[in-house]
């Protein structure tokens, strides 16, 4: 046969296999579809349609490494394909290769004729969320909503925005997002998950009664929800509420641990409740369980230092505070407690002042501590040394592992639609 006849035969076979692959995809028979597209490639190794289809099948099956390989092969043949760059960015995002994802999305914005694609900005929003750049993530998600308020991921976008607004302390906007998806939460989330998030927003706003009401609604649906039981225990632990009750707090923490005894925060909160009841032995036991599960949480070690201080184990208190500061030197309460230790034990006035000054640098609004430093430096007579304090919101500081991760991945500039070359 002549070369022309062979080329026509190869082209016919390629299209036949492509058709079979499309039919298999429609029937969700992914293996058969992949086999068909690979057969098409045997007849034409440069078939853009076959490469794209295999890549899309791999992506749908969450085989992202293979999808990346096929999308790269497409781009090696046609590197101005904005849609493929966008799909490649999503795959890199799913493998947590943020730098490559950023580059791919940047190329997508450069080559797409119309960048007003909500799916693209949804992916860019997740990228910045992974980087921890909440402002850029918010900007991308809001852009996706404006482009198409009804696109398929819209409820997930509202959920992610609700979380971001909560972290930014934009509580009204956070509640609006959660209310929008309450009856139709994005899968695999359920209504109880959204109720929990609403409760947590109210808790962060210190509207504890409203938070309690929402958490109790969750327990009506799932009485063994360990996280909700933990949160309710923490609410009953709060001293400035009408329903404060350390014994109830302990009860809820014990119920939470019965459902999940591997959460270090529950053990930690249980220890805090025992400290309120001045049961130092049980507090110590609970704190030990917490640090066994998470030895890199500086808040845990700060509380252990407070415990040692109250039991007059001042050398152990110093060791605990020192360990907390090695894990995170940016928590004012730890420096404050270290200053109290220096002041009360060995009359190390200058060391105490230095520690207090570090605390003020981190918490400039602490006028009471500033006054105490002044008295400590100027008074000739003994002054009353304050007692050590606990961290008011233990959730506000990340563990060392999370802090290290964020330092390793600095957020790049916000992606913008790029002006095309003439």
TrEMBL record:
It is found in: Nucleus. GO terms for molecular function: chromatin DNA binding; RNA polymerase II cis-regulatory region sequence-specific DNA binding. InterPro entries: Corepressor-Demethylase (IPR051630), TPR-like_helical_dom_sf (IPR011990), TPR_2 (IPR013105), TPR_rpt (IPR019734). TPR repeats lie at residues 14-47, 48-81, 82-115, 118-151, 155-188, 192-225, 264-297, 298-331. The keyword Nucleus applies. Its main location: nucleus. Pfam families: TPR_16, TPR_19, TPR_2, TPR_8. GO terms for cellular component: nucleus. Residues 384-422 are annotated as: Disordered. Gene3D superfamilies: Tetratricopeptide repeat domain. This is TPR-like protein.
């Amino acid at each position: 046969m002549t070369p022309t006849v062979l080329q026509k035969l190869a082209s016919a076979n390629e299209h036949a296999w492509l058709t079979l692959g499309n039919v298999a995809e429609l029937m969700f028979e992914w293996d058969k579809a992949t086999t068909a597209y690979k057969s098409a490639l045997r007849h034409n190794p440069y078939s853009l349609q076959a490469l794209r289809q295999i890549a899309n099948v791999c992506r749908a099956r969450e085989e992202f490494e293979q999808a990346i390989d096929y999308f790269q092969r497409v781009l090696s043949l046609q590197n101005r394909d904005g849609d493929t760059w966008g799909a490649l960015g999503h795959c890199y995002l799913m493998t947590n290769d943020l730098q490559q994802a950023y580059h791919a999305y940047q190329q997508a914005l450069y080559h797409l004729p119309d960048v007003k694609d909500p799916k693209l900005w949804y992916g860019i929003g997740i990228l910045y969320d992974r980087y921890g750049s909440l402002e850029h993530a918010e900007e991308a998600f809001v852009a996706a909503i404006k482009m198409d308020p009804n696109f398929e991921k819209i409820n997930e976008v509202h959920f992610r925005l609700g979380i971001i607004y909560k972290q930014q302390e934009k509580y009204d906007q956070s509640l609006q997002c959660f209310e929008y998806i309450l009856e139709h939460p994005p899968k695999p989330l359920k209504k109880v998950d959204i109720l929990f998030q609403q409760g947590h927003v109210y808790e962060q706003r210190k509207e504890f009664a409203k938070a309690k009401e929402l958490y109790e609604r969750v327990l009506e649906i799932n009485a063994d929800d360990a996280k909700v039981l933990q949160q309710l225990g923490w609410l009953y632990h709060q001293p400035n509420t009408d329903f404060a009750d350390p014994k109830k707090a302990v009860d809820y923490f014990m119920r939470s641990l019965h459902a999940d005894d591997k959460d270090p925060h529950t053990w930690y909160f249980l220890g805090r409740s025992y400290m309120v009841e001045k049961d130092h032995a049980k507090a110590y036991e609970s704190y030990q369980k917490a640090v066994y599960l998470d030895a890199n949480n500086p808040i845990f070690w700060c509380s252990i230092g407070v415990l040692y201080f109250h039991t007059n184990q001042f050398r152990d208190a110093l060791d605990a505070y020192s360990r907390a500061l090695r894990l995170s030197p940016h928590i004012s309460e730890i420096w404050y407690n270290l200053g109290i230790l220096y002041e009360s034990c060995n009359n190390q006035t200058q060391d105490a002042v230095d520690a207090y000054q570090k605390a003020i640098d981190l918490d400039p609004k602490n006028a009471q501590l500033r006054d105490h430093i002044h008295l400590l430096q100027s008074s000739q007579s003994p002054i009353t040394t304050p007692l050590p304090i606990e961290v008011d919101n233990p959730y506000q500081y990340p563990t060392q592992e999370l802090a290290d991760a964020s330092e390793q991945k600095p957020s790049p500039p916000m992606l913008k639609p790029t002006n095309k070359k003439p």
